[in-house]
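Please fill in the sequence for the structure shown.

STRUCTURE ENCODING:
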């Protein structure tokens, strides 16, 4: 990883450029001042720059208004793109501040909530109590980050919020060609969000650098679940909720901390820890036999191809795709029940319920680098909007493109 051998230079752009504290809306082009400092950086041996917040904010940069617009006090998106290009031309990587815990009161979606209250489509983007009141006398209460009400805490368990952020990160990578992110107060971020972010950035750039600010907490646990644990947890998830799997795995992995300990166990021993997962006897046998094969045939390593993974007991193509995608960052199509249902309703497939046929049909229309994230999006859409029993078509933003919806009119 390039970052481990780099010398970083941190710039707080609003201070560096002498911007006024309050966002006065006056456009300047001060961010280009960075270009004048490149010779100095090279003299110091700098080969990576970490920019503190650069996007449109209310005041200090951490109360974001717009994730896709460079702060007007610094310049334009075109100005910053030129800065990034100049840095890259001189062998200097670019890392931005990822401020994802909270936004400012000037954030468009929050302004919409203040205006439209319970009628706002963004109400659940934040932690809101319409019966309360806040320090600004808005006639509602919202959670401010660590009690700071100029920082409106985002609901990172809302998929729309996550997609909004990932869309912004996608833009930063595509337009500015950034090389990494420093995650502001990463110890407070929703762990599932962090994992999705890493999976997404890995799919965009194999050497994309994620650095988490950890004042306390275990960043290694958040980001680096052991490969065999992911494989076993996926096997347990069959006919079982993620919530239940997350309840049983801590004790399971404490008792059997590695592949060798699982391989040395008897299925009945493993079954004691997973009996609440359903089909636990079959799963216990699969897990033990899987780990024995990993130990004996694969040197204790998780295979990185679908062809090898499906040789393992209890591992089908869905699980194999998940492993090669989430673990190894390779193109993958995880065709679970949500993906099969939603892709069929949207008309992305011919409506077949055969997972292999769905995989092949989606592979024909989705670019390899987009496949894993597309499946994540289809899963979340299936869980939150397009349920099996009662799809919420009236709230679906894809209804205008949906074959199922057009047939129900």
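FILLED IN BY: designer on duty
SEQUENCE:
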């Amino acid at each position: 990883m390039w970052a481990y051998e780099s010398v970083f230079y941190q710039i707080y752009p609003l201070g560096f450029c002498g911007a006024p504290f309050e966002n006065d809306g006056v456009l300047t082009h001060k961010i280009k001042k960075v270009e004048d400092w490149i010779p100095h950086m090279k003299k110091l041996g700098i080969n990576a720059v970490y920019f503190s917040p650069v996007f449109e904010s209310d005041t200090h940069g951490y109360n974001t208004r717009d994730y896709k617009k460079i702060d007007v006090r610094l310049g334009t998106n075109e100005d910053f793109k030129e800065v990034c290009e100049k840095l890259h031309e001189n062998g200097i990587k670019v890392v931005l501040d990822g401020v994802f815990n909270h936004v400012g009161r000037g954030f468009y979606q929050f302004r919409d909530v203040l205006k439209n209250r319970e009628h706002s489509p963004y109400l659940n983007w934040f932690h809101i109590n319409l019966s309360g009141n806040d320090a600004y006398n808005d006639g509602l209460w919202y959670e401010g980050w660590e009690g700071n009400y100029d920082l409106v805490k985002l609901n990172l368990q809302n998929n729309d919020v996550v997609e909004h952020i990932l869309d912004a990160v996608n833009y930063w990578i595509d337009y500015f060609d950034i090389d990494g992110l420093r995650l502001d107060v990463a110890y407070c971020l929703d762990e599932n969000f962090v994992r999705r972010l890493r999976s997404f950035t890995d799919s965009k750039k194999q050497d994309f650098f994620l650095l988490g600010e950890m004042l306390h907490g275990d960043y290694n646990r958040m980001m680096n679940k052991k490969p065999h644990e992911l494989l076993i947890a996926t096997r347990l998830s069959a006919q079982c909720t993620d919530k239940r799997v997350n309840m049983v795995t801590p004790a399971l992995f404490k008792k059997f901390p590695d592949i060798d300990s699982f391989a040395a166990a008897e299925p009945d021993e493993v079954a004691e820890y997973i009996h609440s997962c359903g089909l636990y006897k079959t799963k216990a046998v699969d897990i033990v036999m899987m780990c024995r094969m990993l130990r004996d045939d694969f040197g204790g390593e998780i295979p990185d191809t679908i062809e090898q993974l499906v040789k393992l007991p209890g591992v089908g193509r869905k699980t194999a795709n998940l492993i090669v995608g989430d673990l190894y960052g390779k193109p993958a199509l995880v065709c679970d029940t949500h993906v099969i249902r939603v892709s069929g309703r949207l008309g992305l497939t011919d409506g077949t319920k055969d997972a292999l046929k769905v995989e092949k049909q989606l592979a024909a229309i989705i670019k390899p680098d987009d496949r894993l994230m597309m499946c994540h999006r289809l899963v979340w859409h299936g869980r939150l909007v397009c349920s099996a029993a009662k799809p919420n078509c009236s709230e679906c933003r894809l209804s205008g493109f949906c074959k199922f919806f057009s047939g129900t009119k």
